[in-house]
């Protein structure tokens, strides 16, 4: 399934433009950013057991936590990994960019992110630009254009 919003004329235009221009960027300069998370209350809700028998299972009770993993994917490696307790928000993402990502950036790198609200703060933009890197946002409804999707590099790391 994909978001049917991808077929809206404005989104389709932005996706087409991205795909036309992505070949002009030196792939060794691309730095794709993404995050994923795990919650301790993510327990299976269903399963199989012999008819008439209960399915045994265990899950944490009452102390549910979220851990977030953010990293950058370059053409040859995963870079700037960071794990922290709690969900990603503007403050946590700014801290990641300033303290973890920026020290790994070189002038001319092109940082690519999706359109999550916490990615778009002025402080994040300024920190990336101050490192001499460029910042690009993927078109809306376009996780397929980020090779660092949760189902790919992030899941392998976790």
UniProtKB/TrEMBL annotation:
<feature type="domain" description="Tc1-like transposase DDE">
    <location>
        <begin position="29"/>
        <end position="147"/>
    </location>
</feature>
<dbReference type="Pfam" id="PF13358">
    <property type="entry name" value="DDE_3"/>
</dbReference>
<dbReference type="InterPro" id="IPR038717">
    <property type="entry name" value="Tc1-like_DDE_dom"/>
</dbReference>
<keyword id="KW-0255">Endonuclease</keyword>
<dbReference type="GO" id="GO:0004519">
    <property type="term" value="F:endonuclease activity"/>
</dbReference>
<dbReference type="InterPro" id="IPR036397">
    <property type="entry name" value="RNaseH_sf"/>
</dbReference>
<keyword id="KW-0540">Nuclease</keyword>
<protein>
    <submittedName>
        <fullName>DDE superfamily endonuclease</fullName>
    </submittedName>
</protein>
<dbReference type="GO" id="GO:0003676">
    <property type="term" value="F:nucleic acid binding"/>
</dbReference>
<dbReference type="InterPro" id="IPR047655">
    <property type="entry name" value="Transpos_IS630-like"/>
</dbReference>
<keyword id="KW-0378">Hydrolase</keyword>
């Amino acid at each position: 399934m994909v978001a049917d919003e991808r077929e809206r004329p404005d989104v389709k235009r932005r996706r087409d433009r991205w795909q036309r221009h992505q070949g002009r960027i030196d792939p060794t300069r691309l730095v794709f950013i993404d995050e994923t998370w795990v919650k301790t209350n993510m327990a299976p809700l269903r399963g199989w057991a012999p008819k008439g028998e209960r399915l045994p299972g265990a899950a944490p009770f009452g102390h549910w936590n979220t851990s977030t993993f953010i990293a950058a994917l370059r053409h040859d490696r995963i870079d700037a990994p960071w794990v922290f307790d709690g969900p990603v928000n503007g403050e946590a993402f700014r801290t990641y960019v300033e303290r973890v990502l920026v020290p790994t950036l070189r002038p001319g790198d092109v940082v690519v992110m999706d359109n999550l609200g916490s990615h778009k703060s002025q402080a994040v933009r300024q920190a990336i630009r101050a490192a001499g890197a460029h910042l690009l946002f993927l078109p809306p409804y376009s996780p397929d254009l980020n090779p660092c999707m949760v189902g790919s590099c992030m899941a392998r790391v976790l």
